[in-house]
């Protein structure tokens, strides 16, 4: 895995933005687009804005990908990733990585797609909403399918589905994650589930975005019909080709609404393919040779596979077998290059049927084809077991998530959301590495409770934890030690050397004093003013932590409160 260097996503401030045209889901006021502050507990989460400062550039790359220029989209994304890292635009970096991963999967470059997914998982590890993680897992699932690892793909899809939750269309990235899962479902031949997911999404999108999902649905039902044809279920295949014609007509209507001309070529290809598969073969001979010359029908577009197949079918009907073979072999070559196993099977079956038409029903050919068809039928019947397997894995991962949530709640303070002393005990009983900490105590807290009520006192503690999170780093942990006492445990991995640890701990303590002093506490209750005393220690043995930091805090309170004292690590 290659992680993008030089970018600390937890320290990058992303500007809050109004909903972007990309997030054109129905019921606009429900679109989530505000950014939030980074959380500071290791197990806390971060609410981030959906779109970055340079999001318009990611839209250009995304349009190139959607319009069929997959290699161009990859080049744009690589340049955009460099720019996003340089300027600290973490959200645009995510989109660039995701689009590149989609494009890489289309080209059969699963390793590159997996690398993009791994980087996204690192960037999204603390997100409050897990949609980006779901998108990354769907990318990996698609790559696993290309390698023939269906079991690995199903497990990743199960995890992604749990992270996705119930699709409601109120968040662009939830809809986007749903689309990524739908594409990966198609790659493992779960056509019904894929198309169902796509149709759910289309109803939540405005025409500009829906057009891509309708094109994907066309791809799904076309491939579904061809797979049914391979196993000899011609009646069911014909039903899917009728649906394919309907999707193509829908796509053409959306082209008129949106003006996205590249999709007109895709719509025409879908119409001609569906008509050809339903017996109107002359239209393929008339239209497809010209379609294949268009720039939009690039090699990596599914429409090009449909065009080759439809033209080959029409050529077989008029006895032009050599030309038909050329198109089927070209189709198979693309399928091999892009690791599209279902399309390899479709091409092989079509070649065998053609050879029977061309050379006669030789017993060897007939038996070979019968054996091939039995194998295809066996593989097709495994889809039901595959779907059941997916559903079982979803249930398992949902239980795992619920168990993790219960465990997390057992380690949280119910009032403030900070960690409780179980987390502190884990640190003290853990590896014997030097620990740094900041101990915070509210000055005169009993007076606050007596003068303003215990309700206000509780509000003070909740607000204090919010301020501690603002002042701390995302990897540090906030622990409620006692009633009004809080420990901020610095992450030893990122703190660095002894000298660096002292600097980081002292910097944190000063920030805490500053944010508490500058906060308008009267918002909670008129006349309320709050200060804190702070003790700091760095690089002490875990066994000595509480003794050293407690002594420092005690000295700060005895010295007049509202100050910090650096403790002696030798105590």
Automatic annotation (TrEMBL):
InterPro entries linked: Diguanylate_Cyclase (IPR050469), GGDEF_dom (IPR000160), Nucleotide_cyclase (IPR029787), Rev_trsase/Diguanyl_cyclase (IPR043128), TPR-like_helical_dom_sf (IPR011990)
Protein name: GGDEF domain-containing protein
GO terms classed as biological process: cell adhesion involved in single-species biofilm formation; negative regulation of bacterial-type flagellum-dependent cell motility
Molecular function terms from GO: diguanylate cyclase activity
Xref: CDD domains: GGDEF
Natural source organism: Pengzhenrongella frigida
Bilayer-spanning residue ranges: none
Cellular component terms per the entry's GO annotation: plasma membrane
Pfam family, one: GGDEF
Species lineage: Bacteria, Bacillati, Actinomycetota, Actinomycetes, Micrococcales
Domain GGDEF: 433-569
